[in-house]
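QA checklist item 7 of 12: single-chain prediction sanity check.
[x] sequence parsed
[x] length recorded as 122
[x] structure emitted
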Amino acid sequence: MQEQRRYIRYNAEGSVVLKLENNISHSIPAGLANIGFLGFGIETKEKIEVGTNVDFELITKLWDKPVIGKGKIIYVNEIKRYDTTVFRMGIEFLDVEQETIRCIINRIQEDICAQARRKKTF
C-alpha cells in the first residue's frame, strides 16, 4: 500500500480529548499515536465516523500547554487487541496554531537527531 500522506508523521506520546462538533457535552479520551504538519493519529475505544468534525485538546510533554483546535476524522481502522477493540483514527487539522505544531515537530526531530548522535558515540 502506497503512503498517501504529504508529510511525515512522527511517533509521539500524549493524550487527546475529543468533542464531536454536534455533541460538545460528550468527551472522548484518546492516546496520541503520532503527529505531523497536517494532522495526528490517535487510539481510542470509541469509534467516530469518517468525516466527523471534532474539537480537540492535545496534551504532550513536548509543549508546555494544551494544543486546542478543530479537526476532521479522515480514517478509522479497527484493531483487535486481546479481548478488546481499539480504533486507530487519523485527524486532519482544520483549525490549529500551525506555529505550535511546527515547534512540536522540531522538538521531535531534535530528539531523533540527539538519539542518533548518542548511538554513534558507542
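[x] summary fact logged: The CA atoms of residues 47 and 93 lie 19 Å apart.
[ ] second reviewer sign-off
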